[in-house]
């Protein structure tokens, strides 16, 4: 088990509706208050995922905000992809942009740091360990640190300075409370680069004794990142000093790091407000003045809190342990940190083609689609359908600018990280669920064009019916994921009346069959001559046939056709036996150690990475839902905890959180397109989802306890219910799903042919759950 590699043993203590403090002596005191039932923000702990491999940040952001104002430990490393890791004891800056839970690190733009003499300077600490840290730094303790949605606070111990952070959509506000000092300074660094990132051009311009502006351009994971900023101090600085750096072929020197000098009295506050933009300094100023025209910190902090309270209140849970509530509401919170807003208040943004574009609504980016198509985007269709239209249209705008749909995009760039064209299931799911404002024909053109290109193995997929291993590495993963995406295109073609396209893409959706090896029972790579690729082993992570997984983990990825997959394996009995082996066979550590993206093991199943996230729900497709209920309960309680190391793998822009949020309510989109949710086992006595039209969908679990997690029977809106799934229209219609729970499995409930969720090779798929 790889869940507790950073064994902090710490969790959050809720002190009130607007404050969460973390500390080693506070774990056992409980987290609920009388106001908690009305204010779910008190259950959110932004430190969950900042330890181990979660790669989350604890700082201030509003839902899907352009600004993520958060502390940076100041140096690079896998653990510090978000800029911060819970095991660290130093802070080197507070910057305005961060990823949440990714495996690659860029951003950290517009970095501030307050200090007073005598200064701690990075060059004087261990250069081997902290070689990339620049400028001032300070020690800090988690005893002096707190966070709640939209707010962060920490004491810089070396200086006696308290730093508080809050944010709006496009602006960040910092509040520094100083000790008495004749030499107080605030540094601003737009040259700093960490992890994959590298500055290509930057400049700081001092406008007057309060205002500075400039830009940072960088290249790393994304090749053309641009951040323009305008910052203003609440108090005039006495003087400033700037450091120049050389950029470009002509080695033009520009000021890219500066220090601003103040004298302060004890307890005096200096605030810094900053607006950012991908287009221009003028737009950054427009964003700042439109959203944060003054320095009223409490006003913006309260507004951020109220916005989070409203969004988190769309789903409420009761019963269960306090720690489970913290895990749940933190999951809903973290699911909403990405995608991020990318357009300015005037609608402008940097296009994928490098040109300035204008949208009439909102442009989003930071689409980690290989991860988030599985559960995060389906969750948005329930928790925030009002934003789904703009997210989908942002993907279609990306197509207009780049000629193909996004794979993994951010900052107006395509990174081409990971595989597939998983914007397709997101778009189709939203369209089939009736989300308004999506042009079906425009979307279909973008999907079909992307799927018909000759790139990334598609040429052999079209000619041979599978991606050939001797043509493209990771061929098995590519084939399986293309098959699902193509099935989604087929559903869209069917709805729009494109019958030839429906038949063509349905045929491509069967491509998974061409890689199934009946002798081994696994999906394997084939060469162009049809022979199995050599050098294969089902537990091997280094065959080159799979991406971030092995044959055991990837062979289950047929979410659109579990019945067809089971038929290949000789029927449901064999399918279930193979699933049992997947979850209950000990996984020996591979030679050379575990890959960094393998964590959260349960048997051979890897919960810390996405390819198998639907696997425990496949029991519901195979007449054995009770077996999935046991495994799901164990995953939820063992691999998700309310601690800094409580996320066992990269959080991945909301996917890990969305998995938990769905599962804790008792259902999950094992097939993430079309509005079918396989039933698992709820962890709360009651979950209530607010849907359009002032309706509520409620899931109740009677007789639920730590031992009573097996479903004995169910009713939907008062009528006996024996299906292993519910539909999206069940949810949006409002109503009540009631489970009766027990400590022993009911092997008869939802275990007949009529109970099974729809599958491509089985009964007709229900479009949008109708």
Automatic annotation (TrEMBL):
Cofactor dependence: Ca(2+)
Key words of the record: Calcium, Plasmid
Chain ranges of the Glycosyl hydrolase family domain: 283-743
GO biological process, one term: glycoprotein catabolic process
Record's keyword annotation contains Calcium: yes
Record's subunit section: Monomer.
Name under which the protein is recorded: Alpha-1 2-mannosidase
């Amino acid at each position: 088990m790889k869940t507790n590699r950073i064994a902090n043993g710490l969790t959050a203590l809720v002190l009130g509706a607007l404050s969460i403090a973390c500390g080693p002596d506070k774990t056992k005191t409980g987290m609920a208050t009388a106001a908690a039932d009305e204010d779910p923000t008190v259950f959110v702990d932004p430190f969950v995922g900042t330890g181990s491999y979660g790669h989350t940040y604890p700082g201030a952001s509003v839902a899907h905000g352009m600004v993520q104002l958060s502390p940076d430990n100041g140096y690079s490393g896998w653990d510090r992809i978000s800029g911060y890791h819970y095991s660290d004891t130093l802070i080197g800056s507070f910057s305005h942009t961060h990823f949440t839970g990714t495996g690659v690190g860029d951003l950290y733009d517009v970095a501030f740091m307050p200090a007073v003499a005598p200064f701690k300077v990075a060059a004087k600490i261990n250069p081997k360990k902290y070689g990339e840290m620049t400028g001032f730094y300070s020690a800090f303790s988690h005893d002096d640190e707190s966070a709640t949605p939209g707010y962060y606070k920490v004491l810089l111990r070396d200086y006696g300075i308290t730093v508080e952070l809050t944010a709006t959509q496009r602006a960040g506000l910092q509040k520094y409370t100083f000790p008495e000092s004749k030499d107080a300074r605030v540094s601003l660094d737009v040259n700093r680069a960490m992890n994959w990132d590298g500055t290509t051009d930057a400049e700081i311009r001092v406008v007057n004794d309060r205002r500075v502006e400039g830009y940072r351009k960088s290249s790393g994971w994304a090749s053309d990142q641009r951040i323009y900023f305008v910052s203003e101090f609440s108090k005039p600085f006495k003087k400033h000093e700037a450091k120049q750096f050389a950029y470009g072929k002509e080695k033009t020197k520009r000021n890219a790091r500066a220090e601003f000098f103040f004298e302060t009295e004890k307890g005096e506050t200096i605030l810094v407000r900053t607006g950012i933009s991908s287009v221009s300094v003028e737009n950054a100023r427009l964003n700042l003045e439109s959203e944060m025209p003054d320095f009223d910190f409490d006003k913006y902090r309260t507004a951020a809190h109220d916005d989070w309270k409203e969004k988190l209140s769309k789903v409420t849970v009761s019963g269960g342990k306090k720690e489970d509530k913290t895990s749940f509401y933190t999951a809903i919170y973290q699911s909403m940190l990405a995608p991020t807003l990318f357009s300015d208040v005037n609608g402008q943004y940097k296009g994928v083609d490098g040109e300035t574009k204008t949208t009439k609504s909102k442009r989003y980016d930071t689409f980690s689609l290989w991860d988030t198509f599985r559960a995060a985007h389906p969750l948005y269709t329930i928790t925030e359908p009002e934003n789904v239209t703009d997210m989908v249209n942002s993907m279609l705008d990306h197509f207009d600018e780049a000629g193909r749909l996004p794979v993994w995009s951010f900052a107006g760039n395509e990174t081409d990280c990971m595989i597939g064209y998983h914007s397709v299931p997101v778009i189709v799911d939203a369209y089939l669920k009736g989300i308004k404002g999506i042009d079906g024909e425009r979307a279909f053109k973008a999907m079909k064009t992307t799927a018909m290109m000759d790139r990334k193995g598609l040429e052999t997929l079209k000619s041979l019916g599978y991606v050939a291993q001797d043509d493209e590495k990771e061929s098995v993963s590519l084939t399986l994921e293309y098959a699902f995406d193509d099935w989604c295109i087929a559903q869209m073609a069917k709805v729009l009346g494109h019958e030839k396209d429906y038949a063509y893409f349905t045929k491509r959706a069967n491509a998974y069959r061409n890689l199934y090896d009946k002798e081994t029972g696994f999906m394997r790579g084939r060469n162009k001559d049809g022979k199995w690729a050599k050098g294969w082993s089902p537990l091997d992570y280094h065959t080159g046939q799979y991406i971030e997984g092995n044959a055991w983990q990837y062979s289950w990825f047929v979410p659109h056709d579990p019945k067809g997959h089971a038929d290949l394996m000789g029927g449901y009995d064999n399918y279930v036996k193979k699933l049992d082996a997947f979850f209950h066979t000990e996984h020996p550590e591979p030679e050379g150690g575990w890959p960094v993206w393998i964590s959260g093991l349960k048997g051979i199943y890897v919960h810390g990475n996405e390819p198998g996230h639907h696997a425990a729900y496949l029991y519901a497709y195979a007449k054995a839902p009770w077996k999935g209920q046991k495994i799901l309960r164990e995953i939820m309680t063992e691999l998700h905890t309310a601690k800094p190391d409580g996320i066992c793998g990269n959080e991945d822009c909301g996917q890990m959180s969305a998995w938990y949020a769905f599962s804790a309510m008792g259902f999950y989109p094992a097939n993430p397109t079309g509005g079918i949710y396989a039933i698992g086992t709820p962890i709360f006595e009651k979950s209530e989802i607010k849907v359009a039209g002032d309706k509520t969908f409620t899931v109740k679990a009677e007789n639920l306890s730590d031992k009573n997690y097996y479903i004995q029977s169910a009713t939907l809106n008062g009528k006996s219910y024996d299906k292993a799934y519910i539909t999206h229209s069940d949810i949006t219609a409002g109503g009540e799903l009631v489970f009766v729970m027990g400590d022993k499995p009911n092997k008869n409930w939802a275990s007949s042919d009529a109970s099974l969720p729809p599958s491509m090779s089985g009964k007709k798929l229900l479009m949008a759950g109708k």
